[in-house]
Amino acid sequence: MDSALKILGENIKRKREQNGLSQEELANAADFDRTYISLIERGKRNLSLLNLCRFAKALGMKPYELIENIEI
């Protein structure tokens, strides 16, 4: 499961960077603390479905797009 968290974090980071956002800017857009963004991007936190939706909205995408490359 740890690899799924790492892939999710990489997906969020990649999209954040494509959008030209800093971690601080994404945190503000999604109403999270910047340290939470860092933990997610490094695969250190397991986020809830609601938080996944908040990330997707802040990044201008659908929630399922953030988990596309995850295999179990």
Tell me briefly what this model is:
The chain is mainly alpha-helical. Helix content is 61%, strand content 0%. α2 (23-30) packs across α3.
Feature tags:
mainly alpha; single chain; 434 Repressor (Amino-terminal Domain); globular; 72 residues; 4 helices
Q: Can you say what the CATH homologous superfamily is?
A: lambda repressor-like DNA-binding domains
Biggest β-sheet strands, sense, barrel: none
CATH architecture: Orthogonal Bundle
Please tell me what the overall shape is.
globular
The rounded distance between the terminal residues' Cα atoms is: 8 Å
**What fraction strand?**
under 5%
Roughly what percent helix?
55-70%
Question: How many structural domains in the coordinates?
Answer: 1
Helix/strand order: HHHH
Q: Per CATH, what is the topology?
A: 434 Repressor (Amino-terminal Domain)
The helix tally amounts to: 4
Q: Unreliable stretches, pLDDT < 50, 5 or more residues?
A: none
Structural class computed from helices and strand pairing = mainly alpha
Q: What is the CATH class?
A: Mainly Alpha
